[in-house]
Design a protein that fits this description.
alpha/beta, Rossmann fold, Elongation Factor Tu (Ef-tu), domain 3, 6-stranded antiparallel β-barrel, 32% helix
């Protein structure tokens, strides 16, 4: 996949089959759009192009919104789009000036003049341009004027529930990783640097790696204990993870700590990616360390059972 952060570098692409949007999560609805542009590109001897924006529009339009959290960091989104087979990814700088483009200016200046779109495929209820004025009806009107065809993908449903990035964010915030993963079509993940913690875990037989998440917009799941997979230097390991304040040992501040199974390496300063498989329980305060050890033993047993079944499913 070729990635462009300057649209002027995008040129000489054969029969561009284009889609556009924020694609936060790259969920199953997004995957349906990507699958469709790949099919059309193959049939028309073209190449797939995904136009997205950074920063996320809400970061620019509502800079004081401290509640804004995103499913993907920029790096995570790029990795997922490459995984799902997009040929060309254009990351267009979203600015206040850009937000003032009318729908027709966006189509003419960006989709036609810069990308030379031949076929545009968009998701259900897609809006664009100043004040989100543009719609599928506008695109059907502009298409014949500017020489491109347009197609809308109908709503993607699971059990009659329309999938959206908002519903996935809500599920993650509530700790419902099972639903989030079902809507995503892949495991929710966090990537961060391993930093030093109190190192209390190793004193009771469960050493943990503290994961520091640098991106302040990255959505952290609800407090609790989770069965997870951990990727480190290209290798995958099972593990169990706690998000919360460690009340049993009077922790200070919220932390993300993972106990990696069958792992005995010094990885301080390294980057690790956590894949959330299932939530086990709430974070609890125990009366003493012995009670905590008993709970952790059961958490490990439960995690191993879940991860074994998960591997069988894959």
């Amino acid at each position: 996949m070729k990635v462009y952060t300057n649209i002027e570098d995008f040129k000489n692409v054969r029969n561009p089959v284009v889609t556009t949007g924020t694609f936060d999560g790259v969920h199953v609805g997004h995957q349906k759009i990507i699958s469709r542009i790949k099919d059309v590109a193959k049939n028309e001897n073209g190449e797939t192009v995904l136009l997205t924006f950074y920063p996320h529009p809400r970061m620019v339009l509502f800079p004081d919104d401290n509640e804004l959290k995103l499913i993907n960091t920029q790096e995570e989104k790029i990795k997922l789009l490459e995984h799902y087979g997009v040929d060309h990814l254009i990351i267009y700088p979203f600015t206040k000036e850009f937000s003032r483009l009318t729908s027709v200016e966006f189509v003419r200046n960006i989709l036609v003049n810069k990308i030379q779109t031949k076929r545009l495929i968009i998701g259900y209820n897609h809006h664009f341009g100043r004040n989100r004025e543009g719609s599928f009806d506008h695109l059907k009107e502009y298409g014949p004027l500017y020489g491109f065809e347009v197609e809308e993908i109908t709503a993607q449903d699971i059990d009659s529930i329309e999938i959206s990035s908002t519903k996935i964010r809500n599920a993650v915030q509530e700790g419902d990783i099972t639903i989030a993963n079902e809507y995503l079509g892949h495991a929710y993940s966090l990537t961060g640097k391993v930093v030093a913690g109190k190192q209390l875990g190793r004193t009771i037989g469960y050493p943990t790696a503290n994961i520091y998440i640098e991106d302040k917009y990255k959505l952290i799941p609800a407090d609790g204990v989770y069965a997870v997979n951990v990727e480190h230097e290209g290798e995958m390991y099972g593990g169990m993870l706690n998000i919360g304040n460690n009340p049993t040992v009077q922790g200070k501040g919220r932390s993300v700590e993972v106990n990696i199974f069958n792992f005995n390496k010094d990885i301080y300063g390294d980057v690790a990616t956590i894949y959330f498989i299932k939530r086990l329980r709430d974070e609890l305060k125990f009366n003493n360390l012995e009670e905590l050890k008993i709970a952790l033993k059961k958490d490990k047993e439960d995690s191993l059972a879940i991860l074994n079944n998960h591997r069988l499913e894959k």
